[in-house]
Fold this sequence. Notes:
Blueprint: H1 3-7, H2 14-33, H3 64-75, H4 97-109, H5 120-137, E1 150-154, H6 157-176, E2 184-189, H7 195-202, E3 210-213, H8 225-237, E4 241-248, H9 260-270, E5 273-277, E6 302-305, H10 307-310, E7 318-322, H11 325-332, H12 366-401, E8 405-409, E9 415-420, H13 430-443, E10 450-454, E11 457-463, H14 471-490
Parallel strand pairs: 2-3, 2-4, 4-5, 5-6
Antiparallel strand pairs: 1-7, 6-7, 8-9, 9-11, 10-11
Pfam family, one: Pyridoxal_deC
Keywords: Decarboxylase, Lyase, Pyridoxal phosphate
GO molecular function, one term: carboxy-lyase activity
Amino acid sequence: xxxxxxxxxxxxxxxRFAAESCAVVDFLEVYYRDIESYPVWPDAEPxxxxxxxxxxxxxxxxxxxxxxxxxxxxIIPGLTHWQSPNFFAYYPMNASTAGxxxxxxxTGLNVLPFMWxxxxxxxxxxxxxxxxxxxxxxxxxxxxxxxxxGGVLHGSTCEAVVCTLAAARDRALSNLGHEAILRLVVYAxxxxxxxxQKGARIVGIPPSNFRVIPTLAGSAYGLTxxxxxxxxxxxxxxxxxxxxxxTTVGTTGLGAVDPVRDLGEVARQYxxxxxxxxxxxxxxxxCPEFKDYIDGAELADSVSMNPHKxxxxxxxxxxxxxxxxxxxxSALSSNPEYLNNVGGEGAAxxxxxxxxxxxxxxxxxxxKLWLVLRRYGVAGMRAYIRRHVDMxxxxxxxxEADERFEVVVPRRFSLxxxxxxPRHEGRDDMEALNRKLxxxxxxxxxAFMTHFVVDNKFVIRMVVGAAMTEMRHVQDAWELVQxxxxxxxxxx
Length: 492
């Protein structure tokens, strides 16, 4: 940029801020209005964007209108449209007008509540919001600030897992000595998210000390207390130290639910840290009919769930609650002199979130979750969750009524797992058949689904949870599945 233009640069001019922000909002309004016109999953080749964009940024700044036009021409066609009502893949990544408004306020105010003195109201709002959420999902009083526990808003479950593993590790090593880290063992099921294995490596647990415990169809692929007990007994007999047990409410692949109370009793028996991962299904726990899935939570040390998945809160936002904040902060705290600001240090109620996370910086995530709760209310959020569950229930019913299909695992929330049966038993390769079916569904551009493999079965996953999804979209998806099933079965 030339010196004259540089001298005139006003990056946060109030009038320009309003005009350019309105241009972005108008662009997004058109995007959401027309989102069904785009293929949910793009027909894009690796590296295609590099052929469309220059090798260097512009020397002189360009107008927002010019930039947004390039977004429309070059970026939008290469996106997977996660907010499309026909997006049924992975797990949902919700957005909403309230979530967007909260994100705008958070981004616009741009404060960093990493400690109370850095932004008192933002820090305290986070404490209020996590207590609200704890009560809504049915956590016992011990997870609330008022009950001696507390919560923090992380960016993802991955961060929450690393932090709780570090707290569990340090708690154990404070008695055993640091050299005992090679004896610590972490336990999870073959349905648990891979982030637990990654997190264990990050905090220094040897990969050979991570136990992946098999699950069976008989328990709907939930982890059983007996299988954990046997694995722990064998490790103790070998001189190892049980450290951490993950229990999941709504696994990634199948939506399986582990028995929290039974596993909690095993964890207590052996002095293990018990973590409850409810990243996706935690949102459903606000509905009374799902509360039993977290029975026994008082036996846990930590719980996490992601409002950005199924709670209308734009990325990224993960609630982590712990019973003992002191264990978390002792593993993660640092106190350089430049952070010893005057103000609030002596008050017992002050929370410094820099000591509850990996990074020092801490975004104002509480603002967007607060806006979602205020704007839609508990009744509105319960109706939202139930609507998706009812749609998934309908889709499952259609599958069960069609003899061509098999529901692999009974639906619990809004995830349906299914596969297509071969026309002639024993003659067709079922995995190849279902791979072809999934490719045909996604290749149509009319829907996007993903797969999972369990007991050597290739399973198609259909998750209802996008903010804009209505019953007609689920009905269209069912028609698409039927049509593509007929096509692939007719192909030699």
